[in-house]
Records
---
Amino acid sequence: MQDAKILIVEDESIIALDIKMSLQHAGYAIVEIARSGEEAIALAQSQQPDLILMDIQLQGPMDGIEAAQKIREQQSCPVVYLTAHTDSQTLDRAKLTAPFGYLTKPFDDHSLMTTIEIALARYASEQAIRETLVKQREFNELRSRFVAVVSHEFRNPLNTILFSTELLHRYETKLEPNRRELYFQRIHGAVKRMHDMLDDVLIIGETDAGKLACQPEPLAIAQFCQDLIAEMQPEDAPICPIVFTYEVAPSLPPDVQPVVDRKLLFHILGNLLSNAVKYSPIGSLVIFDLSLTPETVQFRVQDQGIGIPEKDLAKLFHDFHRASNARSIPGTGLGLSIVKQCVEVHGGSILVESQENYGSTFLVTLPIPIPTQPPDAAAVQAEPNCKPIALG
């Protein structure tokens, strides 16, 4: 690691310059030479060196060991001690600061370079182990949260199914037709919620394994959006009416079919619309706009719901994160994470504007080439194995 930045802490000018020349000749970058413990602490903070060569006996009230300890308390940086003193008391004090090397003066260039390389290699290994342990701990925490969240969210629809089937079984001949239909609808709704949660789990799994892929094909996108709305809310009594608008650039034909991944788009729009309805007052409008240009497809979902506190916006798309004002409302905390992952796999972007108690607006932009002519159905029929692809 011969491009490493090194801070030299040495109060004897001739020795300091000799070390500097040797290190520069070997390809190291010298950030500065400090001649006191106080100066070493200040330079370590401002220059952020990769390694510090620290003389133990320094000018002033603070020696190198005390300076190294203070640096260690403020930042992570390997220290190699330089000293003419080898008494046991000095060594015992030095050990308490966990140094990465110890050179006794006088030393030659070979010993200096070898000690520095060993120190840098050891530090890099320890950092890698530390990062691995942190990731492992985060993974274990996420796994525990996942089990807790999913088991809780599955319990509710399972209870609904159990309760409804028991009533249907016990009072099969006594229930009015409309009452029976209500219980069947509850069972269907519970099964659909479980199906959607399993889909979310599969998306998370594919993303973690690096297997979430974009498989685009021409899609009648306005009809797709209208079908999605119809699937999400009953026509006779919607909880929050979804107002859909569709705009096509003048240069495009009205029936243009952009090239998108149907599955990813279902997860993107399904989660955004579901959240808009879930977190909005009953009867309030949800605005759903679709606009097409020759370069992009853009979706805007705006609600009049509870909004998102400013402190939650930075973690909004993290797995299992739920806004502080939404924790009393059922949910897994996976929806927006899945939206962002699907958008990114599609090469797009997502923006959010929100204020607590004043609703939220999500803007998704997918950079998708749009064919200027509908796909040739005859050609597709003649070659059943060919797949439409996005050019560009």
---
Amino acid sequence: MAGEKSGTKPEKPGGLGMEKDPPAPVEAAPRSKRMAYICWNDGASNFVEPGWEWFTCWRCGSLVYTA
């Protein structure tokens, strides 16, 4: 851990987790492809894009790695 920068986002794809999976804009649209992950810090469900390797929890802001 020595020499690592703290307080910066990882360089891999990721972003802010969502509390709820937003509904599809059209009734006949295919299902969402988002993944549901649980935050290690507070147990909140977060919906994230399938290619993301990290996200920040919508409730507590903790950084969570998916891979």
---
Amino acid sequence: MWQDFKNFIARGNVLDLAVGIIIGAAFTTVVKSLVDDVLMPVIGMFTNNVDFSDLYVNLSGGEFASVQAAREAGAVVVSYGLFINALINFLIVAGVVFMMVRTFNKLKEKAEDPKDKTVKTPRDIALLQEIRDALVKKNEG
């Protein structure tokens, strides 16, 4: 059983997956910071300094200064502003992943181009093939 586990780990796929998850987690942190600290303030500037993270609907009634205050008071809230932030995060990550996959696929297609695989038959081989075909025809007829 131990040997099977070592073979499983040594295949490389598990290591590739682990590296991908670690890089993905770091990338998510960077994108979250980009959205929260760079994009949303700029978007807020064009929307009269609206902080999307504070946009919510209070289903319990009453008025609160922020979504955090409403939650601390036990109010039932729908935090649609946080959803907008999460949606922007997703769109950025999806866009970057799409560009990476697209670039990878183009490189893969270029590497597998059938034009590169065709090898022109050397002239002497072509002549020998013609002679062979002529002899076969002569023997048949």
---
Amino acid sequence: MTHLGTVQRRRVQFLATVAAVSTLTALGGCGLIGGKDDDGGAPAAGAGPSVAATPAGEPEPTPSTEAPPAAVKVDACTLVTKDEAEKLAGTPLQDPLEKPENRDSCTYTGPVTGPTAQVEVYVGDGAKKFLDIDRELGHKLTPISGAGDEAYAEDGTVFVSKGGVWACVRLVRTDDPATYRKALETAARTAAGRL
């Protein structure tokens, strides 16, 4: 074996040893290995003694045991009713198949005999994700005035936010989308009023 090979092997061994010692030191410092908590038992992962950040003599604030307020669940089918969806689409539609429990989407489909028509309503994270994806894809979004805190329209779809809750109404028709723009903006205002 050459002298160069021995030097490289020792260098690798040294670096491996340094890495192992550093890892063990970090884990020990975090309380993930060894150590004891204040009661003499092993601490939970990531748990360590806490230090009060208040000046001397002031009582430490007590942590709140109150749970954060739960988001109000909105039934997507109440944002745009079947009658309103039929008016929007300009044709009779079928009842939605989604069940009322935790219904964050609602789809009214056209009859199998035609014409092609569908109204989709989304509420919550799914509606916001729909908007985010359309933005990433570079869709042209036009602001809608008088609808919630924030509202946008694109061909065949409107998005509206009120109180931090997003909703989306999408119309599928084979006609020119411009034909339905005003009706979709009205649907956005209606949905915003029900959020």
